Amino acid sequence: MKPRILAIIGSTKQNSSNRKIVEELEKLLLPYSSFSYFEGLTSLPYFSPEQAFEDTPEKVVSFRNEIEQADLIIICTPEYIFSIPGVLKNALEWCVATSVFYQKPAALITASASGEKGQEELHLIIKTLGAEFTEDSTLLIQGVKGKFNADGELIDPETKDALKKLSQTLLNLL
User: Fold this and answer.
1) Do 129 and 86 touch, CB atoms closer than 8 A?
2) Among 57, 82, 119, 160, which one has the highest count of C-beta atoms within 10 angstroms of its own C-beta?
């Protein structure tokens, strides 16, 4: 059975640059793994500590189950006001009191105009959740919109090379 990879996209835009980046990575990983996307970030309720273990909303239980069943998690997010998007932070907060991320291999990609602060925050949150990542399983893509042509095709050779290198790192983790 092929290892399962779950991708979580932090952008809420339908055709975001972040989604396109992960789709490029998916092409490199798909022959060796099964690949799925968590599509429900915006449908998760606001985090409520009182519901972390009792009366947990079904959408949250489903989200946690998807993470738990995955062999590797890819998170790709833009930076919003020097942070990660609120919908992504909310989703991750639902996992804080659980062990679904504990020792789970993770790839962390921040693809934005700048992205440095968002990447720092994402690293801190995922480290707190107990997932395993290294410098080789993280990627900062600055000026991401300029990496694609008008047809949405990745045209930047450096980004293509970085994704190939990241895919090799991830295959070694599976």
Assistant:
1) no
2) 119
- The answer to whether 86 and 80 have CB atoms below 8 angstroms apart is yes
In the chain, what are the helix, strand and coil shares in percent, each to the nearest 5?
A: 45, 20, 35
Question: What would the mean pLDDT of 147-165 be, rounded to a whole number?
Answer: 97
Q: How many CB atoms lie within 10 A of CB 45?
A: 12
Residue with tokens 């640059």: 17
Q: Can you tell me the distance from the alpha carbon of 23 to that of 50, in angstroms, rounded to the nearest whole number?
A: 36
What is the average pLDDT score of the chain?
A: 97
pLDDT-based confidence at 24, cuts 50/70/90? Answer: very high
pLDDT tens per residue across span 80-100: 999 999 999 999 999 999 999
Q: Which ranges in the chain belong to alpha helices (H)?
A: 17-29, 58-69, 86-93, 116-129, 157-173
Structural contact between residues 20 and 147, judged by C-beta atoms closer than 8 angstroms:
no
The pTM for the full model equals 0.97
